Structures are given as C-alpha cells and as structure tokens.
Amino acid sequence: MKTTDDVLSTVPAPAGSDVRVEPVRHDHDGTALLGVLAKDHAVSGPRPGVLVVHDWHGVNEHVEARVTMLARLGYVAFGADVYGEGVRPGDDTASEVAGSFYQDLPLFRARLTAGLDRLREDPDVDHSRIVVMGYCFGGSGALELARTGADLVGAVSFHGGLIAHDPSDASAIRAKLLVLTGGSDPVVPDSAVTAWQDEMRGAPEVDWQVVTYAGAMHAFAVPGTDAPDHGAQYQERADRRSWQALQVFLAEVFDEEPTVA
After folding, report:
1. What does the pLDDT read at residue 94?
2. DSSP secondary structure letter of residue 151
3. Hey, what domains does the chain have and what are their CATH numbers?
4. 3-class SS letters over 156-198
5. pLDDT tens per residue, range 39-71
6. Is 257's pLDDT higher than 80?
7. 232 neighbors 218 (Cβ within 8 angstroms)
8. Of 6, 70, 78, 173, which one has the greatest count of Cβ atoms within 10 A?
C-alpha cells in the first residue's frame, strides 16, 4: 500500500528551491484555526495560490504532503482548517464531526471563506489566480466555496460528496469546476453524480467537467485508506491520473504551460 511519503516523493523539489511547510494560526468568529502553508522561499513575487481543504480527519500529514507537492510545482498552497485547532477526529468520530458541517452549510462556507481570506493575506499570492481543491469532505467544501460566488478561477473535488441544491445556487459560481470521482464509489453513486450534473446544466454559464475513474472507491486519492467493506480504498492508478488531471486543469485556469509531474 502506497503511503503519503510515497506520493510526496512523486513531485521532487526543483533544484535551488527552498520549499517550507509552516503552521499558520488564524481564527473565525472567535474559533482558533490551525492550517499549514507551503511555498518556495527561493522564489519572489506573486504566484498562483491553491487552497487545499482536508478530508473528514482534519488537517493532517496528507494535507501537508499535498500542499508541499503544490509548492514544488510553483504555487503558494494553504491547507485550511475547517474544524478548529485541536479538532482532528479519528475514524470513530470523523463522520459525526464532518456531518455537523454538512448540516450547517452557512458555517461550512464561512470557515472555507476564512481559509481563503488567510491565503489571500500571503504577500506572494496573485489574487487573480486562486483555486480551491479538496478531498472527500474537502471536495464537497471546494464546491460549496465556489457556490458562494467567491473570486476563484477554479474549484476541484477529489472524491467529494456532490450535493445538489434545491433551489439551485449554481448560477453564483464564477470558477471553472473539475470533479474527479470514483466509478465504484458507494458514497457518491451514479445517482448523485447525475443529480449534480443536472443542476449544473441549469446554469449553462458554468464551466464544469466530471472525470470518473474505473473501479475507484471513495478516498481513492488518500494513501493508506483500505476499508473496501465501507466503500473506501486507495487506488494508485486513480490517484496518479487525478493528480495529472489537476495539473492540466491548473495550467489552464492559471494560463500556464502544462507540466505534468
């Protein structure tokens, strides 16, 4: 089984780089939040920013690995904390904690916006080129942030829950959307994908795409996940392909030459 360190090693640091990952504290309405920021300190000047939203376990080593990989690609990446400092649930309580935010979408969106605001505070971030992305719970979060009309050029969901809204607020979306989902994901079945696509079709001005990976279950891009009886399992092929799809998408929305690593 591939580990987080194995995935991190697939994007080596460029020669002469000085990529650092540092904890960042901020708050939202009195709740202390603890995220992680990664960027190459050997580079000066504004560059694209990527907001990374954690899965239902909170900010952890997987988030740190992904922001590091993004920093090695030349971006400023911030792993936002939705839950609050010290709230890092295990398997036994993660569903309950994540569920509390699904049941309170205004709070969910407000915490995501707080993370976006913190990323924007970094002096090296080009405010005109920011993307949000996330895994599972964070994939849902990326799409929810886009629904607020946030000034984003893109939003990417890795095996995130697809929540169709009725009444729809899809017309508020300004970002291009990339949904990466598993073809054998019982958490996000075909019916959910279809309902979400139907809602997006009702907002023809929204630019969206869905990529489905054969045989991939929920959490296919989170190394170490191995719970097929619960519909969740890491799949190296889908992880690799989805990361490549992300890079092509980022190059498009950031108006860069595509470089797949």
Report:
1. 96
2. S
3. 20-253 (3.40.50.1820)
4. EEECCCCCCCCCCCHHHCCCEEEEEEECCCCCCCHHHHHHHHH
5. 999 998 999 999 999 999 999 999 999 999 999
6. no
7. yes
8. 78
